[in-house]
Specification:
The complex is a heterodimer of chains A (about 500) and B (about 250). With about 500 residues, chain A is an alpha/beta fold. Chain A contains 13 helices and 23 strands. By secondary structure, chain B is an alpha/beta fold. The chains are: A alpha/beta (about 500), B alpha/beta (about 250).
């Protein structure tokens, strides 16, 4: 497996403290003052030239948020966040609305190049087969800088743009669907996001259209003390199909940075949405200093009959991860899937899982969760599978596997199962294992170093989930997992 | 050339002494059989050669091609040409046998400063060797040793040996769990690898393996010491009379 070998080379070339993506791009940014109040929200809304109803929506969320308290039920510990010590808006100065790549700040393009994003259309065209092409909507801090492939998507009738642009160009669509899956009042972080979200992606796939390419967004958190509040909305009309890839990296910072995103997916009759995430934000250094706080609300609504939503995630970064990509199986015969790899090392804390809410008849769901804990990290799977009264013949299969590396880490599984319909069949399987000394010795006897042996065994452990990722992400994901586990043995 | 000098070793965890002064010289091209009753230290010797850290060498040395193996980590020993065919090969779930083979081969090549093999070249080598051992492509797609029968596991060990081309092969009870047909396939695989530059240490309870892999020298191990050394006829004698004579002699 050359990928593993390459990973090892990359691992060798970096130190634990030298987070690979820990460079800071020096670009002047346009910032709102620190802190949060109604004026800041008006400032954001004005900067984005939003319609009046949007501002009202935000203000309402903000007022609601003031009455809410932070959730404490997750198995994570962190010092109290001072929400008035955060910048809620930061945009690269040169950014507002470039017409083409030529107008984009070369420093920005260089940053993306370091991240390996195929931003330049011609490079993609030259290097990759047409069906594997990826359209990238790159988010640099808070503003979408460049959207590629827009023309071709337009031909297919697919709208793929920043949510700010969608608010200006397609306000009726945004108004109809925004907050319809994750209501403004949903939870502390989602409500905060509703008040202050700065940008994110918007995708609309019209009836009967199969999106001609994978859509992709790379998020970057660059500015110091900037909260990143992404808002993503994806709508697949009847019979439509779309696959969306989300990748995240952030430069190294000493201070913890807050990220509270909201992602809403809506699949109508016979539609399918596949949403894949690779998240490798800065996890903090060896002593557990710094790192991203990631409090994310992701939810998909299988609103139509025979619709399908599939979440695949590879989580290797962030100091704290609080994230439960969920499916509401509202339409009859709808299907939800959740495939997850959550890797924690150092002092990382992960509390992640999914919710499969069966409302319609003959709905089915599948959960495959692979947690890998190393170092002094804590890794919790928390999941809910529920069948409501009318959800006859609901089916769920859940498999939660945990792999422990070393003596000082923890793996926890907290499944909730609620069934109000006698015909529902829910299965839950869980395993916890350790990489055994015998496995390590066997691999070493064949010539593998400690790191190579761990990488190989872990890649075997996560194979079921890696297979669900689009090809171009699968290799990247394997590398990331290996890099994240560097220094976890010996 | 392998030279074991006055080797003493104990179990690291509880200090139980297992090897009590082993002396052994294996020249290139030679096949040495080590026989002995249960608990005589045969498997321990194989693990210590490969560098398993469950054991502690308290005295003596193992010199291989002029270098002390005791200073090398297990993967460094592998790259230096030491291969251990396990009595109980370990399962690696989710890792296809083919993937494992390629990872191991390239890790060793890299450690020796050689280029990685291209996929077509690698596939060609695997196919040739696998065919000889009656290993199907289907089996190579399955996770290594997971759900393999006893015979499949041992054949997979020999396949790894054939691919990695070690210069010192240690076979730990490779005949255990094999029926007569499988024993033949495995033995033929080993015999094909015999050559002037490759040495073998074959550890076994039974003479029957040595009917197929004919050794140059036979040693009897008892209570952590070599108590008798002879030619292939020694194995036949053991088969007839059992270990009792030697065990008593050592006591």
């Amino acid at each position: 497996m050359p990928a593993v070998q390459e990973t090892i080379d990359r691992v060798r070339s970096i130190d634990v403290d030298q987070y690979k993506y820990g460079f800071i791009t020096d670009i002047e940014s346009d910032k709102a003052p620190k802190g949060l109040n109604e004026d800041i929200i008006r400032f954001i809304s004005a900067k984005k030239e939003e319609p009046e109803w949007m501002l009202e929506w935000r203000l309402e969320a903000y007022r609601r948020w003031l009455t809410m308290t932070e959730p404490t039920w997750a198995r994570v510990e962190y010092p109290k966040i001072d929400f008035n010590d955060i910048y809620y808006y930061s945009a690269p100065k040169s950014a507002p609305g470039p017409k083409s790549l030529d107008e984009v700040d070369p420093e920005l393009l260089a940053t993306y190049e370091k991240l390996g994003i195929p931003l330049r259309e011609q490079e993609i065209l030259a290097g990759v087969e047409p069906k594997n092409r990826v359209a990238v909507d790159a988010v640099f801090d808070s503003v979408s800088v460049v959207t590629t492939f827009k023309e071709e998507l337009k031909k297919a009738g697919v709208i793929f743009c920043s949510i700010s642009e969608a608010l200006r160009e397609h306000p009726e669509l945004v108004k109809k669907y925004l907050g319809s899956v994750v209501p403004v009042t949903d939870n502390f972080y989602a409500t905060l996001n509703s008040a202050v979200f700065t940008d994110g992606s918007f995708v609309y796939v019209p009836e009967g259209v199969r999106c001609p390419m994978e859509l992709s967004t790379y998020f970057r958190i660059n500015e110091k003390n900037t909260g990143q509040f992404e808002r993503t909305l994806i709508i697949a009309e009847k019979g439509a199909y779309v696959s969306y890839l989300e990748g995240c990296t952030a430069p190294q910072r000493d201070e913890n940075q807050l990220h509270a995103a909201v992602v809403e997916l809506i699949a109508l009759d016979d539609a399918e949405i596949k949403y894949s995430t690779v998240q490798n934000w800065f996890p903090g250094d060896k002593e557990g200093k710094g790192g991203i706080y990631n409090f994310v609300t992701k939810r998909g609504d299988c609103r139509g009959k025979n619709s399908k939503i599939s979440w695949t995630q590879v989580e290797t970064g962030s100091a704290i991860t609080w994230k439960y990509p969920s499916c509401i199986l509202r339409g009859d015969n709808s299907r939800g899937e959740f495939y997850s790899i959550a890797v924690s090392n150092g002092y990382q804390q992960i509390d992640s899982g999914t919710k499969m809410i069966h409302l319609g008849k003959n709905t089915s769901s599948r959960i495959i969760s692979k947690g890998i804990s190393a170092g002094k990290s804590q890794n919790t799977y928390r999941g809910l599978v529920s069948a409501h009264r009318k959800a006859s013949n609901a089916r769920n299969f859940t498999q939660c596997d945990s792999l422990l590396i070393g003596q000082d880490c923890g793996a926890h599984t907290v499944p909730y199962i609620e069934s109000k319909n006698a015909t529902a069949v829910f299965e839950h399987e869980a395993t916890t294992s350790k990489i055994s000394d015998d496995q390590m010795f066997y691999c070493q006897q064949r010539g593998l170093s400690d790191e190579e042996a761990v990488a190989l065994i872990v890649n075997g452990f996560v194979k079921d989930v890696i297979q669900q990722l689009p090809m171009e992400f699968a290799v990247e994901a394997q590398k990331l997992i290996s890099i994240s586990l560097e220094g976890s043995v010996g | 050339m392998l030279e074991i000098k006055n080797l003493h070793a104990r179990i690291a965890e509880d200090g139980t002494e297992i090897l009590r002064g082993i002396d052994l010289v294996v020249k290139p091209g030679e096949v040495h059989a080590i026989m002995g009753p249960n608990g005589s230290g045969k498997s321990t010797l194989s693990y210590i050669l490969a560098g398993k850290d469950d054991y502690e060498v308290t005295e003596g040395d193992i010199v291989y091609n002029g270098q002390s193996l005791l200073e090398l980590a297990p993967d460094e020993r592998a790259a230096a040409g030491v291969f251990l065919a396990f009595q109980y090969p370990i399962e690696i779930p989710g890792v296809a046998t083919m993937t494992f083979l390629k990872t191991a081969l390239n890790a060793q090549r890299k450690a020796r400063g050689e280029e990685e093999l291209s996929t077509p070249e690698f596939m060609k080598r695997v196919k040739d060797k696998a065919g000889e051992l009656q290993i199907t492509m289907d089996m190579l797609k399955r996770p290594l040793n997971v759900g393999f029968s006893g015979g499949e596991k041992k054949r997979a060990e020999i396949l790894q040996m054939a691919l990695l081309q070690p210069s010192l092969c240690v076979l730990d009870e490779t005949d255990s769990g094999l029926d007569i047909d499988a024993l033949k396939v495995v033995s033929d695989g080993v015999n094909r690898l015999r050559g002037p530059d490759r040495s073998f240490v074959v550890i076994t309870h039974y003479q029957r393996l040595l009917d197929h892999i004919v050794p140059d020298v036979v040693h009897v191990l008892s209570k952590g010491r070599i108590v008798k050394t002879g030619g292939p006829e020694l194995a036949l004698e053991l088969e007839k009379n059992g270990y009792a004579d030697f065990v008593d002699a050592a006591a």
